[in-house]
């Protein structure tokens, strides 16, 4: 796997690069601003971009805007966004396009090496990995959305799906059977109006439908 890292903090940028190297993941470019991210992606065509939301010069949303532009130029480019805080509108904006291969994690998750590396691989493979804190806040603030039709347990399952967990992993987390999780997932698809499709993965579509609400 070939990765481009965009992070203005030298310590975090080098730290992520070394962490990925230990897992056999090559960093082809490590930059500190959005413009350099665009140049690096154009040059290297990486398998994944790991991007900080706030970068120079204003430290507001430069990284997020650069990530969205990268995905516009190179449709399907997997992007894993790192943020210091939960910023819901950034997560929704990144995911609203309906494409797979996106993630949004709080930077503190990098300290959990296994969790971070799992997220990197999952997003690079076209899945999603949304921080549970982001999911929690979005669920609290969402109103009049299809998700309102879900039961508390189905919402819990959807939140775990958004984190990228498989049915078996969800079953282990909730201490229920695989069959029970499959039933909940089926109910979620039905209540969100997600029919089987050859072009999009319904698990990803369920997460995106929720975040776009």
Would you mind describing this structure in some detail?
By secondary structure, the protein is α/β, with parallel strands linked by helices. The protein has a six-stranded parallel β-sheet with strand order 2-1-3-4-5-6, sandwiched between helices. α5 links the parallel β5 and β6.
Secondary-structure map with pairings?
Layout: E1 2-6, H1 10-22, E2 26-31, H2 34-44, E3 48-52, H3 62-73, E4 79-83, H4 88-95, E5 102-106, H5 113-124, E6 128-130, H6 132-141, H7 152-162, H8 167-174, H9 178-191, H10 202-211
Parallel strand pairs: 1-2, 1-3, 3-4, 4-5, 5-6
Number of strands: 6
Strand order of the largest sheet: 2-1-3-4-5-6
Beta strand % = 5-15%
Mean of the pLDDT scores?
A: 84
Order of SSEs, N→C? EHEHEHEHEHEHHHHH
Summed up, the helix count is 10
Largest sheet: 6 strands, parallel
| Low-confidence runs | none
**Rounded radius of gyration (Å):** 17 Å
Distance between the termini: 33 Å
**Which shape, going by the Cα principal axes?**
globular
Structure class: alpha/beta
DSSP helix fraction: 40-55%
Notable characteristics:
10 helices, globular, 213 residues, alpha/beta, 6 strands
Could you give a quick summary of the protein structure above?
The chain has 213 residues and is an alpha/beta fold. The chain is 51% helix and 14% strand.
């Amino acid at each position: 796997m070939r990765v481009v890292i965009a992070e203005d903090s030298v310590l975090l940028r080098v730290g992520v690069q070394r962490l990925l190297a230990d897992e056999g993941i090559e960093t082809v470019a490590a930059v500190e601003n959005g413009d350099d991210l665009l140049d690096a992606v154009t040059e290297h065509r990486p398998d994944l971009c790991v991007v900080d939301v706030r970068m120079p010069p204003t430290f507001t949303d430069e990284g997020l805007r650069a990530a969205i532009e990268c995905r516009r130029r190179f449709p399907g480019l997997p992007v894993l966004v790192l943020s210091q805080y939960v910023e819901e509108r950034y997560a929704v904006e990144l995911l609203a396009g309906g494409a797979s291969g996106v993630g949004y994690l709080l930077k503190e998750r990098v300290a959990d090496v296994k969790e971070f590396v799992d997220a990197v691989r999952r997003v690079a493979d076209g899945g999603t990995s949304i921080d549970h804190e982001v999911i929690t806040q979005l669920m609290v603030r969402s109103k009049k959305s299809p998700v309102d039709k879900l039961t508390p347990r189905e919402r819990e399952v959807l939140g775990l799906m958004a984190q990228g967990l498989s049915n078996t992993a969800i079953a282990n987390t909730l201490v229920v059977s695989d069959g029970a999780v499959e039933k909940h997932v089926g109910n979620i698809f039905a209540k969100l109006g997600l029919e089987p499709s050859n072009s999009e993965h319904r698990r990803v579509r369920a997460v995106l439908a929720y975040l776009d609400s």
